[in-house]
Write a structure and sequence with these properties.
- Among the domains are: 39-185, Leucine Dehydrogenase, chain A, domain 1 (Rossmann fold, 3-Layer(aba) Sandwich); 192-356, Rossmann fold.
- Helix content is 46%, strand content 15%.
- Helix 10 links the parallel strand 11 and strand 12 (349-351).
- The relative contact order is 0.13.
- By secondary structure, it is an alpha/beta fold.
- The protein has 16 helices and twelve strands.
- The chain binds glutamic acid (GLU).
Length: 473
Amino acid sequence: MPNNVSFLDSVNRYFDAAAPFTDLPEGLLKQIKVCNSVYQVYFPVKINGEVKVIEAYRAQHSHHRSPTKGGIRYSNHVNQEEVVALATLMSYKCAIVDVPFGGAKGGVRINPWEYSESDLEKITRRYTTELIRRKFIGPAIDVPAPDYGTGSREMAWIYDTYRSFHGDDINAAGCVTGKPVNQNGVRGRTEATGRGVFYGIREACNQKDLMDKLGLSLGIEGKTMVVQGLGNVGAHTATISQDEGGVKIIGVSEVEGAIYSKDGFDIHEVMRHRQEHGSILSFPGVQTFGKEDRRAVMEFECDILVPAALENQIDRDNAPNVKAKIIAEAANGPVTADGAEILAKKGVVVIPDIYLNAGGVTVSYFEWLKNLSHMRFGRLEKRFDEGAYRRIIEQIEQTTGKTVSERDKQMIVRGADEIDLVRSGLEETMITGFQGIYELYREKEGINDLRTAAFALAISKISNDYIALGIWP
Ligand code: GLU
């Protein structure tokens, strides 16, 4: 048997392991499991005077809620199975954090680092046109977002292309999320996945029975962390965990290799160093592992290992050597089903992707709501709240006869800005999401890991929608 059964097989195995705990009829389970529609398209783009044929996809896994939602990936490894697996994870992810969307995912099979900016723009605009032609994009239909190899720049091109075809749609900005803030984006979207990962890990570390089981102290502070990949997700997870959680970062890896130091290092300094010198490997005072050995990162000794790159990184080959106590799945599908079985036997706790990296789509939901409401969050209440808080302080001053300094007053009365509200909504979502999964994990006889609990929760929530739609009695 090949070591790496496909990504989709892994996802379906996780589904099958959780399904019996939901007591749902066979037909309904099947409908939830299958991917509803996949659009595959080839289109020509002229690059340096030569025509290149580009292969691209958009998969919509589930329409139990509308629109469908999920990122667009630019990578050489894109294929139909991968896109379907990723779209499937999106459905479960949205259900767990109560984001009212079905799951989707897009992919363009290119290595984005081999193309110039203007070539990428051509490819992105043409891909968007293909999606428009087939009605695979729209604020009420299917709403893309960034994923591996794409970012706010690509989202701006998608938005602009969509708008030029739909000038009469007042909600056109809601056709894509992850846009730049000055182009109808929302503050806090870029950091959202990483920040959500931090909140999720913090929540897990706050569970006494879980930490006791692992022989770890309660709370995230002082825990050691290793991060694979310093892309958008990994970089924000690492910096926020260090700055706000008091975590000690002791290892990181990137395309050029990996570094490790049991005393830890400042992650900002490592990132600055990489920007200046083009590599983490020349960072002073650390153990280094070259490009060929970079997978060693998965075997570094630490409390928390954060795979934040691509799928299938921990499989049955390297799972036996994992030394981390907690694996925090910031990426989608970083642990194969075979790898997961081995980790479970070793007593490693895996915080599953379908919960842990849901911060991105959560803040995408906020951005979509902002686009539909045509107004920045906080605009209505900020000044009103400030006035109310000021009156409370004045009352306290009057009754106590003491005065609060103007500086302290300014701090206390500050009304919420958009970024405060986005972070607050994200934190609330991640805490509530964890509680839902943890309750099932603790209370349902036979559920022995967080992933099975998360899948069971997602399947039940999606089934409720199908039942409410009257499709199932
Ligand atoms: N690509 C991200 C994910 O895998 C975000 C999706 C979105 O915001 O729609 O969750």
